[in-house]
What does this fold into?
Amino acid sequence: MKIILIEQAATDMAWEASYDAAGYARALERERACGIAAVERKRSPAADYAVYTGTTPAARQTAELLFELPEGPKETPLLDDVPLRPFADTRKLLPLWLWQSMGRAQWASGSGRQVEGRGETLHRAGELVDRIEAAGCDCVLISRGLTMRALKTVLRRRGYLLEGGDLRPTPLERVRATKRDLHCGGCAHNCLLSEAKCQTGKNKALGIR
It folds into this structure.
C-alpha cells in the first residue's frame, strides 16, 4: 500500500502582526473558515488513489486544486489541523509568532490550556491509519501543521518509509510513504520509488525470492 501525504495549500487569511488573546482567538476561527490563496495548478486524475481531506474549506479546495474528483474527496475530521487556543489570557498585544510558537509548545507538552495535546493528535492519526490500512487501498492524505507531523510519526512507527519533504513543510509539498515490504531491506531508501535499477527491490515487490 502506498500513501501520499500532501501539505494543504496556504489559506487566504490576512494575519495581523500582533494580537491580544481575544483577537488571536477570533483570528484562528476566521482562518479555519478561509479558502485557499489563489494559485495556478494543473489538475491530474487521482487514478486508483482514494483522496482524503479534513473538513475545512481550504482542505477541500486543495484536493480540488490538485485532482480531478467527480465525486469530491473523502472528508474526515481526523485530518483537521490541531485547533490551537491562546496560550494565555491577556489584553496585551503580543506578536503573532509568539502566539503560534507558544501554542505549539503547549500542544507538545500536553498542556490542558490547549484543546488537544500531542498524545491525542497521535491517537487521532493512528485511528486514521487504522482505517486506511483496513481499506487496503492506495491513498492521498491532505492535511497540515501539527496533524501532518503526527501522521508522519505514526507512519514511521508502523514501518513505513517516508521520502520527500523538509523539516519545515511548504504548501502542496508531497511526501511518499510505503510499507517496508516494498523495500529491498539493504539500503536506506525505498527502491521502488528512488532506485529504479535495484533488481532486489523489484523482485521482492513482485514476490520473487
In short: The radius of gyration is 19 Å. The chain has one domain: 2-178.
